[in-house]
Specification:
heterodimer; A: four-stranded mixed beta sheet; B: 6 helices
Chain lengths: 155, 198
């Protein structure tokens, strides 16, 4: 084998660092978030007042984390950077859609059943959650690469 | 090649190169390692629960804009990689390549790789492996294959007595895959969402 060059060392180190961050940075452990995600989290703190939390997750109307044990009431799905935040809502609840992107999106059930319709960039919309508890895959009909989840759970 | 003086095929200088056992093992190891990386990324992207969260934007107004431009930077450097490689192999009519070109080739490739990492991180961690459309599926496949091909190329560089075709094939595959990645992401973003995006 030939000698190891500086570029190979840089590539190997960066690749291993990134792979480590992928494996060791689960979605629900923000305190252990990497430096890059921590920077983003800090930037979202200032925007938390209108429904989003500092970690970008959806909150119910009382401000409790959707991932927490509190019963979901009215919930918010935020669309930012062509991504949906996860939301846990009560069956049949009215779900507010907050579109933080500069372009229009929809929040639609992948298999049908609910649809926010087109929500313009920077605008809000809403839809009615299904009455049947479960995890529903949501998509944007305008941007097919977007995919997320809506969890419907009884209080 | 046809020997015009005798009308017979000559293999003395241009025939297929005989692979030495060490080189064969080295190439197979490089290919296996690349395949392992690609498969690992695909499996991770499939089994990992996409967070949907943003990451640092590095001064860009949003993550998507950041990804589109970092990928464009990597793609541009890949084109320079292609040109510099062609020059190093004497395939361009620019005369003898300057002494610094080899180092420039290596460091531009390293920079392209570094630029791609935040993009790949967000793709895998936040979005996962997706197949919601042909473009998205192609992008996912290109992404997984790219890092496997990169692994193979970096290992082929270090295989003693590797045949002359090995490095151009490995490097050419990288350029093709990165071009596919850019066409199915940044170009789509610029043409469907907005240019320059900020």
């Amino acid at each position: 084998m030939r000698r190891v060059t500086a570029t190979a060392v840089v590539c190997a180190a960066a690749g291993l660092f990134t792979a480590g961050a992928l494996v060791l940075n689960p979605s629900d452990s923000k305190p252990q978030a990497s430096a890059s995600t921590a920077a983003t989290t800090a930037s979202t703190v200032a925007r938390a007042g209108d429904g989003g939390t500092p970690d970008g997750k959806v909150t119910n109307s009382a401000g409790a984390s959707a991932a927490g044990a509190a019963a979901p009431a009215a919930a918010i799905v935020t669309v930012r950077d062509f991504s949906f935040t996860k939301a846990t809502v009560a069956p049949g609840a009215t779900v507010k859609v907050v579109n933080r992107d500069g372009v229009a999106h929809t929040v639609s059930a992948a298999k049908g059943g609910f649809d926010s319709g087109t929500v313009s960039g920077g605008a809000d919309g809403s839809f009615t959650a299904p009455s049947e508890p479960g995890t529903y895959r949501i998509v944007c009909h305008i941007h097919p690469q977007m995919s997320g989840e809506l969890i419907v759970r009884s209080p | 090649m046809l020997d015009t003086s005798t009308g017979t095929a000559s293999t003395a200088s241009t025939g297929p190169e005989a692979l030495r056992p060490g080189a064969r093992a080295g190439l197979l190891t490089a290919a296996a390692a690349g395949a392992a990386v690609s498969i690992s990324l695909g499996v991770y992207g499939h089994v990992h629960d996409p967070t949907g969260d943003a990451i640092a934007t590095f001064g860009f107004p949003s993550v998507l804009v950041m990804k589109a431009w970092l990928a464009t930077g990597a793609f541009t450097l890949a084109m320079l990689q292609l040109l510099s490689a062609l020059w190093l192999y004497g395939r361009l009519p620019f005369g003898r390549p300057p002494a610094w070109l080899g180092a420039a080739h290596r460091w531009s490739g390293t920079t392209a790789f570094l630029l791609s990492l935040p993009v790949a991180y967000h793709c895998l961690w936040s979005l996962g492996f997706q197949d919601t459309s042909a473009r998205v599926l192609a992008h996912s496949l290109f992404g997984c294959a790219f890092y496997g091909a990169l692994t193979t190329k970096l290992l082929v560089l270090r295989v003693d007595d590797a045949p002359r075709w090995a490095l151009p094939v490995a490097g050419g595959s990288l350029v093709v895959l990165l071009s596919g990645l850019w066409l199915t992401s940044s170009l789509w973003f610029f043409t469907h969402v907005g240019f320059p995006g900020f």
